[in-house]
């Protein structure tokens, strides 16, 4: 190990992840975990050699070998968990009965549940399941198709996940010529199959048809139903039924557009996988593990480990930097033995998995930290010298692993299905091994049928490799802030630094300019990503987990071209990630360049609509304009974030009884001595309000959410203005309601007004609405009243909204005003929001609140309010609607959690159209009126800014921002790294 590397102390986040995920009992250091693993894997050696191999196995780990997470967390413990990360399991066509070695669907479901319960992820090929509409003779009915059964597997995975400590990762594959392929391609468009990655198994025949603009048959061995036969289905000479013929390019375009927008489905070049398979003579592969780096047969497993390449760079960043090939090869040889031992040391969830492993003894040795190692060697990732170095490193690993497996065969015997002539013949990977290796294999056999796999490393890199770049990937960013939940429920922030960047700063100081080799995933072309995979793939006998990152504006035609290039290059698959409005933006190394504010000409003013307000003249198009802005004290507003209260807080409650039912209203209260502004409002501080109950009007929860932020703004007059605005919100009919403290009946124009009145009463009791004192929010408004037009009206922006599930159909309208800018120009801003049509009437109250927020000078204020509403959900309130902000000519839909969430997204989009906010809801130009919280300030000050992306709920912070990055789950809100495959 390099003395330079060993002089770096561990990052605090590395210690945290080690303790949380891998350390057991009294273990506190990585070396103690390594020693436990070494003891466990040496236990399968002859007794007289165990001490020797324990020492060697611990040495190999200290030198950079990082066993997969399952091995690190469970080896040598009393846990009944498997040491194997992932499996592929067969799924037949019958409900329960086995058929030609394939278990029935529900038997397969049970096997998968047991596998996931033991900690393994599972991949499946669902292509044997008969298509929708196929004839089911035993019940005289019609089949529902593979996608319907995938939903059953999806729900089962959720159940198993909730009972275990590791998330149940799944991969679902369907062949490109299955009659239900189109339903499969679009199965996740509406948020279905959340516990699946999905990939299409693409054949060479299909790709040639795409290339030639030909047609393909969608076929299955199951007989179609009568309707399908009437529609033209027929039986081919080979016994397969042709359900229909489709133009290959039409199907390819559906796959590509879904991948372009959703990053799924992935592509598996299934023929190439089988052509290259060392065991093509005795098995067929139709699926992969969930991260795609291990194509596997039925009941096959991936026994994984990675070697940290950064440990073998000598004189890093220097002109004479070099890679220690001999040291690397020695570690690879010992690691190969360790992984072979895992197969004998592990618990197997199913006997069939154990039989498969014992017959073939597949393992997957790979490397991690390639991107960082290339930086340390002075080779820029997207150049030919870097690819040549990667080829050389991969060849050394191949030769060391296969050589070690030959030695193991001499000692322990070859794997049972080994046949030298068939193994080394044909066109498989083994046939292309160096002659010296092939001669040794002929002479002594081979212990393991497959030996190499480059997998994602996720948290094992954080815990054991100082956050070296993931697998084959370049670094994604040099540093980011990880927000981690502590045992008491509070959060603690950790700086997470890339290893190469951290080492460079350690050696050369914090201000030294980075070398040209420092390049991240977002700094290079998509072609460069694909080229690195193509460079390394010939040296890897299974596959490689690699994400090709493309920018949001990457042309669709070129995007398709990446996949054709991958096919032509002989790759076994490809995964891409393109930021867009459906998935969100990727983590940014630097904040995106801001578009210039929309500039508006300065026409002659007409009549004054109210003091300080004019109407621009432009023929029939007129717009309100403010001549002068107030000058508030900068940074005068406290950012209204919720206080962190590990021990909880008191809340006052009241039952709101309205004509259609009743619900509970809660006002959260903070003891004065516990808050940062102790004593501001008296004994306690009201800091939030929420409602609960099945009979609350739709939209009222969102209103409470935005009002809570106003409670935390330290401006009693502003809160009073908000409550005043709600006091007269009229709905379908007025009603009488008991009012505190005596229960006397009072007449209210609607539920919103009644709720606001109760909130006001409680705030008055707490002294939260007292006159006098600072009014920072009011001072920051450019207009306290809604700007009024003349008789000729003014321009406004309108958009139609429809929620089919609730029957709502209405129009959202934004009144807009032109404001001066500090630079002397003008910018157009919304100043009021309104609704017309059939919509939840509580939105009228929300509109009044947001209209006031829109008139705060700093757009960061309204941006903050709108972002908080993006994740507001409602029971059965989700619906599908078009995504705003897509490039011209494109149209996509997604599922929105509620009408309010969609309204917030549309308003953000309008602000983005005007150049005021970006599409994420953050201000294009900061005005400095809002005081940024300390945590946010530290994140902005870091060399990397992180943008959140919509995704699955994060188990760490709870935000719906968990995405798939570099083969691993990654939360873009808090930096949590979850399951990898």
TrEMBL record:
<dbReference type="GO" id="GO:0004748">
    <property type="term" value="F:ribonucleoside-diphosphate reductase activity, thioredoxin disulfide as acceptor"/>
</dbReference>
<keyword id="KW-0215">Deoxyribonucleotide synthesis</keyword>
<dbReference type="GO" id="GO:0005524">
    <property type="term" value="F:ATP binding"/>
</dbReference>
<dbReference type="InterPro" id="IPR050862">
    <property type="entry name" value="RdRp_reductase_class-2"/>
</dbReference>
<keyword id="KW-0547">Nucleotide-binding</keyword>
<protein>
    <recommendedName>
        <fullName>Vitamin B12-dependent ribonucleotide reductase</fullName>
        <ecNumber>1.17.4.1</ecNumber>
    </recommendedName>
</protein>
<feature type="domain" description="Ribonucleotide reductase large subunit N-terminal">
    <location>
        <begin position="10"/>
        <end position="80"/>
    </location>
</feature>
<comment type="function">
    <text>Catalyzes the reduction of ribonucleotides to deoxyribonucleotides. May function to provide a pool of deoxyribonucleotide precursors for DNA repair during oxygen limitation and/or for immediate growth after restoration of oxygen.</text>
</comment>
<dbReference type="InterPro" id="IPR013509">
    <property type="entry name" value="RNR_lsu_N"/>
</dbReference>
<keyword id="KW-0560">Oxidoreductase</keyword>
<dbReference type="InterPro" id="IPR013344">
    <property type="entry name" value="RNR_NrdJ/NrdZ"/>
</dbReference>
<dbReference type="InterPro" id="IPR000788">
    <property type="entry name" value="RNR_lg_C"/>
</dbReference>
<dbReference type="Pfam" id="PF00317">
    <property type="entry name" value="Ribonuc_red_lgN"/>
</dbReference>
<dbReference type="GO" id="GO:0071897">
    <property type="term" value="P:DNA biosynthetic process"/>
</dbReference>
<feature type="domain" description="Ribonucleotide reductase large subunit C-terminal">
    <location>
        <begin position="85"/>
        <end position="577"/>
    </location>
</feature>
<keyword id="KW-0170">Cobalt</keyword>
<dbReference type="GO" id="GO:0031419">
    <property type="term" value="F:cobalamin binding"/>
</dbReference>
<keyword id="KW-0846">Cobalamin</keyword>
<keyword id="KW-1015">Disulfide bond</keyword>
<dbReference type="Pfam" id="PF02867">
    <property type="entry name" value="Ribonuc_red_lgC"/>
</dbReference>
<dbReference type="GO" id="GO:0009263">
    <property type="term" value="P:deoxyribonucleotide biosynthetic process"/>
</dbReference>
<keyword id="KW-0237">DNA synthesis</keyword>
<comment type="similarity">
    <text>Belongs to the ribonucleoside diphosphate reductase class-2 family.</text>
</comment>
């Amino acid at each position: 190990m390099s003395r330079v590397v060993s002089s770096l102390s561990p990052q605090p986040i590395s210690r945290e992840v080690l303790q949380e995920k891998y350390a057991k009992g009294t273990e506190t250091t990585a070396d103690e975990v390594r020693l436990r693993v070494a003891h466990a894997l040496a236990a399968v050696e002859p007794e007289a050699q165990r001490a020797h191999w324990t020492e060697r196995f611990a040495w190999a780990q200290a030198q950079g070998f990082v066993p997969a997470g399952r091995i690190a967390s469970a080896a040598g413990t009393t846990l009944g968990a498997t040491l194997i990360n992932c499996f592929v399991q067969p799924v037949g066509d019958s409900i329960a009965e086995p058929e030609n070695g394939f278990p029935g669907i529900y038997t397969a479901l049970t096997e998968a549940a047991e596998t996931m319960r033991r900690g393994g992820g599972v991949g499946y090929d669902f292509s044997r399941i008969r298509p929708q509409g196929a004839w089911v003779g035993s019940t005289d009915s019609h089949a529902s198709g593979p996608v319907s059964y995938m939903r059953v597997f999806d729900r089962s995975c959720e159940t198993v996940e909730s009972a275990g400590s590791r998330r149940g990762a799944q991969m679902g594959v369907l062949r490109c010529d299955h009659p239900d392929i189109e339903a499969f391609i679009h199965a996740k468009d509406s948020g279905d199959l959340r516990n699946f990655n999905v990939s299409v198994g693409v054949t060479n025949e299909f790709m040639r048809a795409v290339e030639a603009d030909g047609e393909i048959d969608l076929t299955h061995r199951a007989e179609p139903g009568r309707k399908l036969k009437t529609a033209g289905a027929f039986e081919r000479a080979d016994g397969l039924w042709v359900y229909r013929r489709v133009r290959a390019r039409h199907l390819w375009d559906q796959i590509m557009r879904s991948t372009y927008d959703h990053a799924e489905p992935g592509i598996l070049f299934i023929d190439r996988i089988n052509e290259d398979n060392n065991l093509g003579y005795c098995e067929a592969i139709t699926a992969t593990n969930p991260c795609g780096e291990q194509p596997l047969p039925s009941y096959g497993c991936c026994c994984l480990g990675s070697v940290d390449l950064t440990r073998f760079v000598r004189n890093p960043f220097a002109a004479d930097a070099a890679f220690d090939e001999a040291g690397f090869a020695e570690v690879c040889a010992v690691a190969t033995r360790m992984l072979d031992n895992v197969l004998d040391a592990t618990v197997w969830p199913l006997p069939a998995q154990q039989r498969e492993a014992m017959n073939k003894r597949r393992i997957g040795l790979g490397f991690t930290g390639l991107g960082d190692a290339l930086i340390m060697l002075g080779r820029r990732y997207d150049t030919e010298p870097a690819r040549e170095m990667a080829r050389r490193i991969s060849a050394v690993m191949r030769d060391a692993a296969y050589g070690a497996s030959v030695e193991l065969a001499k000692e322990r015997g070859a794997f049972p299905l080994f046949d030298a002539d068939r193994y080394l013949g044909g066109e498989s990977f083994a046939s292309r091994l160096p002659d010296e290796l092939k001669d040794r294999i002929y002479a002594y056999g081979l212990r393991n049928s497959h030996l190499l796999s480059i997998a994602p490393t996720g948290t094992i890199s954080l815990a054991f490799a100082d956050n070296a770049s993931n697998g084959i990937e370049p670094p994604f960013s040099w540093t980011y802030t990880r927000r981690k939940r502590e045992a008491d429920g509070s959060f603690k922030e950790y700086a997470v630094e890339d290893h190469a960047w951290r080492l460079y700063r350690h050696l050369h100081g914090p201000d030294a300019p980075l070398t040209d080799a420092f390049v991240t995933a977002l700094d290079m072309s998509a072609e460069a990503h694909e080229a690195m995979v193509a460079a390394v793939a010939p040296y890897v006998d299974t596959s490689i987990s690699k994400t090709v990152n493309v920018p949001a504006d990457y042309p669709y035609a070129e995007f398709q071209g990446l996949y054709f290039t991958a096919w032509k290059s002989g790759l076994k698959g490809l995964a891409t990630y393109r930021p867009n409005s459906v998935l969100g933006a990727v983590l940014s190394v630097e904040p995106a360049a801001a578009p210039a504010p929309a500039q508006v000409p300065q026409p002659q003013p007409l009549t004054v609509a109210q003091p300080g307000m004019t109407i621009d003249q432009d023929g029939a198009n007129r717009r309100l304009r403010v001549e002068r802005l107030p000058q508030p004290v900068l940074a005068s507003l406290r950012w209204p974030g919720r206080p962190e209260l590990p021990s909880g807080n008191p809340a006052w409650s009241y039952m709101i009884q309205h004509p259609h039912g009743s619900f509970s209203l809660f006002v959260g209260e903070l003891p004065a001595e516990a808050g940062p502004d102790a004593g501001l409002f008296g004994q306690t501080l009201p800091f939030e309000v929420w409602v609960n109950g099945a009979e609350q009007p739709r939209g009222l929860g969102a209103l409470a959410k935005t009002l809570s932020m106003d409670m935390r703004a330290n401006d009693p007059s502003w809160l009073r203005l908000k409550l005043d605005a709600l006091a007269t919100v009229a709905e379908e009919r007025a009603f009488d309601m008991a009012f505190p403290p005596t229960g006397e009946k009072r007449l209210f124009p609607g539920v919103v007004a009644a709720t606001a009145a109760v909130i006001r009463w409680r705030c008055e009791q707490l002294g939260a609405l007292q006159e006098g004192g600072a009014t920072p929010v009011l001072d920051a408004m450019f207009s306290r009243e809604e700007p009024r037009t003349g008789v000729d009206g003014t321009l406004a922006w309108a958009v139609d909204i429809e929620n089919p599930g609730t029957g709502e159909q209405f129009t959202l309208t934004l009144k807009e005003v032109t404001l001066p800018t500090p630079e002397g120009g003008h910018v157009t801003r919304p100043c009021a929001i309104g609704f017309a049509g059939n919509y939840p009437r509580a939105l009228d109250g929300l509109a009044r609140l947001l209209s006031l927020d829109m008139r705060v000078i700093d757009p960061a204020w309204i941006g903050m309010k709108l972002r908080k509403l993006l994740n507001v959900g409602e029971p059965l309130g989700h619906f599908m609607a078009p995504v705003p902000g897509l490039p011209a000519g494109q149209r996509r839909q997604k599922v929105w959690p509620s009408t309010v969430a969609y309204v917030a997204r549309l308003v953000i989009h309008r602000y983005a159209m005007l150049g005021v906010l970006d599409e994420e809801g953050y201000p294009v130009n900061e005005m400095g009126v809002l005081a940024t919280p300390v945590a946010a300030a530290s994140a902005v000050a870091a060399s990397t800014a992180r943008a959140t992306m919509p995704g699955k709920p994060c188990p760490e912070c709870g935000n719906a921002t968990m995405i798939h990055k570099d083969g691993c789950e990654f939360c873009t809100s808090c930096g949590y790294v979850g399951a990898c495959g």
